[in-house]
Amino acid sequence: MQSLGLSKQYGKKDSEVSQFLKNICGLSLLPPAEVCDCFALEFLFNLPNDKRVEQFCDYLLENYIDADSTFPPPVWSECSASSLRTITVCESFHADINALFYSAYSSIFVLLSALPKIQNETYIKMRSVTKRRLKKIS
Fold first, then answer.
1. Are residues 16 and 67 in the same domain?
2. Domain count, the chain
């Protein structure tokens, strides 16, 4: 959004573009199977008349919405009442780190023992995305 100059539009309260961009964030709350249909039927159908928004939607489609994209909906979209919802990947990582510690002032050794767990989880996520993409190619 920043590279397209949409971050200022996002902050405006009464702008059609701002409302559209804020609603896009709700896609992560849908079940993965419904993301593509919702994006096409709800968002693209009601697209504001702004070339930058069109470019942003093209970017989302190529990288996040299509089934063969780099990060398809099953990777980032989750519809679960029990899941801990966060806004960004950074917040998710921070929540995972916090869950590993039992006191506010843990020693460095606790951190060092937790890092391999985090690294393994990250590798598993990366490999699952790669395997899904390879299956679709073959």
1. yes
2. 2
**51 and 96 both lie in a single domain:** no
- 23 in any annotated domain: yes
Q: Which domain holds residue 36?
A: 7-74
- Which residues does 79 contact at the CB level (< 8 Å), separation at least 6? 29, 30, 31, 32
How many angstroms separate the Cα of 102 from the Cα of each of 14, 83, 98, 106? 44, 20, 8, 7
Token pair for residue 102?
A: 């039992």
| Residue pLDDT, tens place only, 76-117 | 887 654 454 556 667 777 777 777 777 777 788 888 888 888
Distance between CA atoms of 71 and 58, rounded to whole angstroms?
Answer: 14
Closest CA relative to residue 136, chosen from 31, 66, 76: 66
DSSP 8-class letter at 1: -
- The backbone region for 5, taken as left when phi is positive above 0, alpha when psi lies in -120 to 50, beta otherwise, is left
pTM of the model: 0.55
Shared domain for 96 and 62, answered yes or no, is no
Question: For residues 5 and 90, what is the distance between their CA atoms, to the nearest angstrom?
Answer: 23
